[in-house]
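re: ur msg from earlier - yeah i can do the pyridoxal-5'-phosphate complex, just paste it... oh wait u already did. ok heres what im feeding in:
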Amino acid sequence: MSNVTFLSGEKIPLEMHKVRMVQKISLPPVEQRASSMEEAGYNTFLLKNRDVFLDMLSDSGVNAMSENQYAAMLQADDSYAGSETFYRLEKVLQDIFGMKYFLPAHQGRACENIIAKTLVAPGSVALMNYHFTTTKAHITLMGGAVEEIIGDEGFKIQSTAPFKGDIDIDKLNEAIKRIGKEKISFVRVEAGTNLVGGQPVSMRNIREVSHICRKEGLKLVFDASLLADNLYFIKTREAEFKDVEIINITREIASLSDIVYFSARKLGAARGGAILTSDDGLHVKMRELVPLFEGFLTYGGMSVREMEAMAVGLRETMDMDVVSQTPIFIEALCNELLAKGIPVVTPPGGLGCHIDAWKFCEHIPQTEYPSGALAAAIYIASGVRGMERGTLSEQRGEDGIEHLAEMELVRLAVPKRVFTLSQIKYVADRLTWLFAHRHLIGGLEFVEEPKVLRFFFGRLKPIGNWPEQLVRQFRKDFGESL
Ligand SMILES: *Cc1c(COP(=O)(O)O)cnc(C)c1O
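and the outut:
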């Protein structure tokens, strides 16, 4: 992606790829969108893909693949043990990350299972910039706890800090002193901090954290699932890296870490997972768990076709044209929304555009799920599917009392090289319309509430008949238009 200056002086994101394979999508009329939303229990996870126009639920496993990735899939070498495919992928990983050992796993959370089983003892604490849902689940399953030591700026929805994912070094030193290093299982840095809005971590911060870990004898685990966008931000926001190649930034991060792992559903535009280390002891311990939970050491639960695609996809990711596409589209979308006064997380980060549902739907109390209601309203208004990231995604306490989320967000993910700029402009346009009529949006209440991970399967209904009113207003303003 290049930010090219047009004759008008406007900077316009220009795609540095062409589309050679397409999937037809359709935009159902607003009445049909309202009834699909009702059928899905006002939960965007329960919508059927055929009813969705632009799927911005997630970037997981849905990034566009290149012609070379598809071509590589044809030469996949099927065998239980010793597949050529494994050795090709291993070579690519060793080259890109400069680490000695590669252990395969079927996806990111499977890597987390292996790492938690290896490093987490009951009663221990893992320090990290911020948790990810599956990471925390595996650590607590082993009897450990998670403590978040992200800088305070990370919690500010509107900020100008370029690296809101950075660990607060004072909090890190204080936590080591208070907890004691023998009770700390590891320190984890998550690239492109997912749950605070895809916000990046700086190399400066990774260096400082690594220095402290080495001094104290603590293991540093680096979650590289969202590394691609983070690489773009290091190169563009840290002056020192302006002329440094993407692959060399990647190698430096790996050299500062004891373990690097990632979900290849995100990094590398395929589906799978990988753990990397140069530590002989850690390698031996983690290796024992791969055949137990994943599969034999030369496939680890992955299809060999996906492994070939991953090898090519990772090489292709080491390219500024590739890593810049998502962040530049997100910035374009956020800037259009900000210009219309629509509240979004700033500065624009990676992963997606994060709308501040708290502000957007000020009139809806948190107990009536403003983020869930906004996600449903966005689908009705546009056919665009986003993800609720607020109170609905929290778990109700044993006492039946709601845990109110610290932030109420709706995430519109921007998968890599999937959408065009006119589609992004359409999203901004319909959101602008919805913002003008935000007072029409009402709250939601549960009809069926699962005890765990309720946001995946839970069914809700609107409080009042607001979806009907939204449809009526849409027809009034847009006439026959979809
Ligand atoms: C998605 C994700 C994971 C888990 O990966 P899966 O492949 O979905 O299991 C772990 N960490 C981060 C930061 C992620 O975004």
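cool cool. The chain has two domains: 3-59+323-478, 67-321. ping me if u need the other ligands too
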